[in-house]
Each structure stands twice: as C-alpha cells, then as structure tokens.
Amino acid sequence: MNTLFTLIVVIQVLAALTIVGLVLLQHGKGADMGAAFGSGASGSLFGASGSSNFLSKSTAVAAAIFFAATLALAFIGNKHSTAGGGVMENLPVQTPNAPAVPSSAAPAGVGSSAPANGPENTAGAPSASAGSSEGGAGQVNQIPK
Hints:
The chain contains four helices and no strands. It is mostly helical. Helix 1 (2-25) packs antiparallel against helix 3 (50-78).
C-alpha cells in the first residue's frame, strides 16, 4: 500500500510540473497582436495555428491526470486502519476503587490514604503529598527533586 501511495504522489508531482511548464509555454492574449504583424507565427514549432490547440489539449490532459491523482490520494488517505489504534488504547485499565500500587509493595491499610512505605510515616510526621517539601523515597505519585 505504501508503494502505491508513493507512485501516486510521484504521478501527481509530475503532472503538476507538466501543467506549470505547459502554461508557461502558451502565449497570452497580448501575444496575438505581435503575431498579427508577422512575428513569431512563421518560426513556431507547431505551425501558425497548431501551437495553441496542441498546448491547450496537453494542459487539459495533464490537469485531468493531476485531478485523478488527487482523488486517488484522498481515497487512499481516508482509509483508517483499525490495527494501529490510538495512544490511549494501549494504557492498562485501572478501576477507580483500586489504587495504583506496585505489586512488590503491600499497603498498610485498605482505607488509608497515606503511603505505607517511607520513614516519615513511622514517626508520625506529615507525608510529602500533604504539602511538605521533603520527599519520601518510596512514595508512588511523587517526582524526586
């Protein structure tokens, strides 16, 4: 699928460059006045009247190819893959009643909100999560300083 996408992008870029080149080769409406006095019509590659028809038809074909490549890229890019999933789908599921405790640490009490491990909890000092600036070594939801 990736090679098809790359191939369509290459076709689209080539068609866009072809359109730019063909539009730059075409004469504008102001060039007709010079051609009326004899300049440029006899030295043309496609003849006196063939250049405008050939270049405009070529531009139309390149524009159709560009349009088809754009539609193909939109169609391919719109398909969603279900195998990838989102970032949040890979997270482990946690129930709201059970706190996230590492399996190696056992909680002190089922209903207690203070962490079980840490030297400040044995002496009765307030924990770091209650607003203290000192950090305990074994607390679960704390960033070390």
